[in-house]
Design goal:
alpha/beta, seven-stranded mixed beta sheet, globular, binds flavin-adenine dinucleotide, metal-binding
């Protein structure tokens, strides 16, 4: 069938106005909202689901990968929730496993304390643009479409949904074929202390060998010593920002989850039962904006430093096969800077994009995508948006000395400060 196009015009009532509107409440969005609020701004955080934490809670990621710089709001979160893991120095690595349920509760209380107004079940639909500025975002709420007006906007949807809708150029996936890293449905199993009968529901697969498994490996963590097994073993070839891919992923990943659990129950975890399956299949990679600077593989492997550094990491290059082959490209890196310009779309004065959808190549994003780095980027975006409002400057002209000073006041420490 040939696709038709409709034009859709509607008068939309304004529900709220804020200095800074953050869209998406994952690691980047929560940190952006906190940082802007700490700079004295009125902040609204719009989240399409019922919880904060993004992939970290919604997709049950439940573990922080080591980034070699435990700093800023991320450090504070570790101190408040996982104090036993807090390193004495910021430049040590930690990889704590956590409860996504406790984090969900924690974020609700934290946002209240930080004076961030959170709207759940509020999904961004469209951006209202005037010249180089976003004036408002239209949001699907439980009461229908509503507008949220703001002076600055920070897109933390992970998919660059706001930026793309506003017309910011973007790319997705590998250069050449556009394939993104695959999706994974995370789940946990719990030691029941007695043998369980393995079940294999209709439609599932019988895996008998490690080689049969979707990733060709066993990948799980049981580091909390409480009998919880966190399993990251499904793998579905899909781009989590595409309609048909997501339909496929949500059914195929669930099949794999039951099949993997059945395999584990026959191969070492005979007393473990499925305890929880994430509400949604996790998205590692979808869209990247094209910003004022694009972080490259060369920057990552050469340990490049930038005068406008806003986040630092030494997390490895970590590419789960975009073809859904049973391979993962893992390469250690020594550490590098991510510059502010990766979050700035050239055509807008009051829009920043933080988190995994910053301007980066496929290989570079595979390293910068982990949670701690997204918290750092979000924090910088929130502080930068506040400076832009105070100074009446465009996002691209935010003063770096000022940004670095505010980040320092907010507890951020860099290993190497350039410039
Ligand atoms: C399976 C898997 C395993 C991973 N393993 C690890 C790991 O072990 N350790 C680690 O540190 N990292 C890991 N990661 C990576 C990490 O979880 C993500 O890259 C990180 O959460 C990205 O943060 P973000 O804030 O950019 O985006 P996200 O976490 O994706 O958050 C985006 C938020 O925006 C919301 N949103 C999206 N669209 C809209 C809209 N239209 N309107 C309103 N809200 C919207 C979403 O609901 C979500 O809450 C993993 C990721 C996956 C998928």
């Amino acid at each position: 069938m040939q696709s038709k196009q409709y034009s859709f015009t509607r008068q939309v009532e304004t529900h709220a106005h804020a200095d800074v509107i953050v869209i998406g409440g994952g690691p980047a969005g929560t940190a952006a909202a906190i940082a802007a609020a700490r700079s004295g701004k009125q902040v609204v955080l719009l989240e399409k689901s019922a919880q904060l934490g993004g992939m970290g809670t919604l997709a049950n990621v439940s573990i922080f990968m080591p980034v070699g710089n435990v700093t800023g709001i991320y450090r504070e979160i570790v101190a408040e929730m996982l104090a036993e893991y807090l390193p004495a120095d910021h430049d040590q690595s930690i990889a704590p496993q956590y409860s996504p349920f406790l984090f969900r509760q924690y974020f609700n209380e934290k946002m209240k304390k930080e004076n961030v107004q959170v709207f759940f079940h509020s999904e961004f639909v469209g951006a209202v643009r005037e010249d180089r500025r976003i004036k408002a975002v239209v949001v699907s709420t439980r009461e229908g479409l509503r507008a949220f007006e703001g002076d600055a906007f920070i897109d933390c949807t992970g998919d660059a949904r706001v930026a793309i809708d506003a017309g910011v150029p973007y790319h997705a996936g590998r250069e050449g074929d556009g394939l993104t890293q695959p999706m994974t449905l995370m789940f946990t199993m719990q030691d029941t202390g007695k043998p369980v009968v393995p079940i294999l529901p209709e439609g599932c697969y019988e895996y008998n060998d490690v080689a049969d498994l979707p990733q060709g490996r066993r990948l799980y963590w049981e580091q909390n010593g409480d009998g919880t097994l966190l399993v990251n073993m499904s793998r579905v070839k899909a781009n989590g920002a595409k309609i048909e891919d997501v339909n496929y992923a949500e059914t195929e990943a669930l099949r794999q989850v039951f099949s993997i659990a059945n395999y584990l129950q026959r191969t070492g975890f005979e007393t473990y039962a499925i305890a929880h399956i994430a509400p949604q299949t996790g998205v590692r990679e979808s869209n990247q904006i094209e910003g004022l600077y694009t972080l490259t593989e060369q920057d990552v492997v050469s340990g490049r430093r930038f005068a406008d550094v806003v986040a630092q990491t030494n997390y490895e290059i970590d590419i789960h096969s975009p073809d859904a082959q049973k391979t993962t490209d893992e390469r250690e890196v020594d550490g590098y800077d991510i510059p502010y310009r990766c979050m700035v779309p050239a055509a807008f004065d009051n829009l920043l994009v933080a988190g995994r959808s910053i301007s980066a190549t496929h290989v570079a994003m595979s390293s910068m995508r982990v949670q701690a780095t997204c918290y750092a980027l979000g924090q910088a975006a929130g502080a930068a948006a506040a400076i832009a409002l105070d100074d009446g400057s465009a996002a691209k002209d935010v003063s770096m000395p000022k940004l670095h000073a505010i980040l320092e006041r907010q507890g951020v420490r860099f290993r190497v400060v350039t410039g």
